Amino acid sequence: MKTRHLAIAAGFIAAAATAIAPAQTTREGVAQLKGVKGNVLLSRQTGLAAGGEAARLTEHTRVITTANSEVVVVYDNGCEVRLKENQRFEVEVDKPCAALIAQAQSVLVEPAGTALGAAPVFFWVVLPAVGVSTVGANVLLGPGPSPQTLSLSPS
User: Fold this and answer.
1) Per the CB 3.0–4.6 Å rule, which of 14, 38, 51, 132 could disulfide with 42?
2) What's the CA angle centered on 131, arms 127 and 133, to 5 degrees?
3) In what order do the strands lie in the sheet with 62-65?
4) Distance between CA 120 and CA 56 in Å, rounded?
């Protein structure tokens, strides 16, 4: 009877040890997500996935924020890279923290010159050179509507 109780107790201890063992596994990755707000995506070799709070990140994982989203990538060494909406960042190691922070980029494509605010200047400098006149306007905009298409009366 005593041996039976010992065998049952040993079985419980073995089951408890097995349940605890997975919790002691090493953490994969070099960083994790913190302060996840909105839709944060993780692009890995296995595909695209949603990024949740405390998700572990391995090297070369791309973190992407969508509209109205933000997240902080916290490296195990303490470096924090903050991503605002519509930004991307690739997790890399062996770089100084300042270089990692500067690596965050916008995912939106900006037309050439707009980043410097040059588009309005370009428009007003080049347009007169094109010769905006009645003839120039007809070439650029096409001929105006004929009088029949401007009729406002029902007849």
Assistant:
1) 51
2) 110
3) 47-50, 40-44, 62-65, 87-90, 105-106
4) 45
